[in-house]
Each structure stands twice: as structure tokens, then as C-alpha cells.
Amino acid sequence: MITGAGNIFIGNAAGTGETGSGKLYIGAASEAAAFSYIYGEMNSNPNLFRITSIRATGGATLRDILLTLRNQYWSGAATTSWDFDILHDMTASGANPASHVDFSIDAVDILTLTNTDGTISLDMAGAITITSADMTFASSVDSALVADEVTLGGYDIAPGERSLAISQENSVVTEAIGASDKTLPVRINGTNYKIMLHT
What we know:
Blueprint: E1 8-10, E2 23-26, E3 38-41, E4 48-51, E5 61-74, E6 79-91, E7 98-105, E8 108-116, E9 119-124, E10 151-158, E11 161-167, E12 182-188, E13 191-197
Parallel strand pairs: 1-2, 11-12
Antiparallel strand pairs: 2-3, 3-4, 5-6, 6-7, 7-8, 8-9, 10-11, 12-13
């Protein structure tokens, strides 16, 4: 039974069982709020608008556009539209699926956030520019040689001695150091080194 006031239900049996007010349901079945194709709460603060993907069965892999923002500009000859898309990939793998949230502009991927069994990673296309803050490594993670990859992090060489950790494909080369040169301790490919600072 449907109760409440100020609701908007579009679709066969959409909103069936809803007892609240100011709710939006758009769908083709009597799905609950969590599975309705489009669900909204219009009297909440802030208001909620959600597009939900279909439920997975049989280890399915889902890739759905969750939200698209479109803007236009005039090139002098024609109007051109660019879309900003947020997509969610959910790859079933037993009880611990891999979840990817992709951001793209004009069909070009710019950022991917991934959670694989609690391990979080971020991939970006293009350069990262930090204009008004520092990049901080809050945890100690050891470095190791990885092909086709360069990674920066922080590593505790000793208690209270957090150092820059570098993973790179190239090996470290031994060279002579002058008596007047200074050194900076770092962690490269899982080994402690001192970078020579020569002036």
C-alpha cells in the first residue's frame, strides 16, 4: 500500500510499499528504494538523487553511467557539447569484489578510484599539479623494483626516521663521493641509500 504525500512515482508498480513523503521513484518494477532505477528524496536536507545499477547475478561484471553532467561552448562556428561522466565498475570476485569509480571528460578517462578487497588505489591520466599544499606520506610502505613504474612513498628507515621511498625500474649505480659532499637518506627498491648532494 502506498501512503505519504508529495511523492512522484513513474513506471509500472514504481514506489510500491513506500510509506514516506516527498519521494521520487522511476522504474519498471516494484523495487525497493535501494534498487529503484532512479530514486530521490525531495524533502531531505540536502535532497538526494540517485541512479542505481541493476542487481548482479551469476558473477556479473557491471559498468553503468551513474551521472552525466553536460556543458556546451560556442567554437565560433558550431556548438560543441562535452560530457562529464561518473561511472562505477563492480567486478564480482566471491565475497570481495573489486570496485572502480571512473571519471571521464568528453569520453577521455581522467581518474579512477579502486577498492580491491580493502586496498585503495588511485590512477590518473596526465600530470598531477599541487598548487597550494604539500604531498604527505602518512604511512610507512616499503619500496620494490617494479617494471615500467616509478613510485614515491614514505618508509621508516629507523624509529622516528621517516624517509622518502622510491621505487623505480632502474638499478642504483655506485659512484665515489667527495669528502665535502652531503647526503640525503632515501629508500630505493627496498634498500637504504644516501643521495649525494653536490654543489
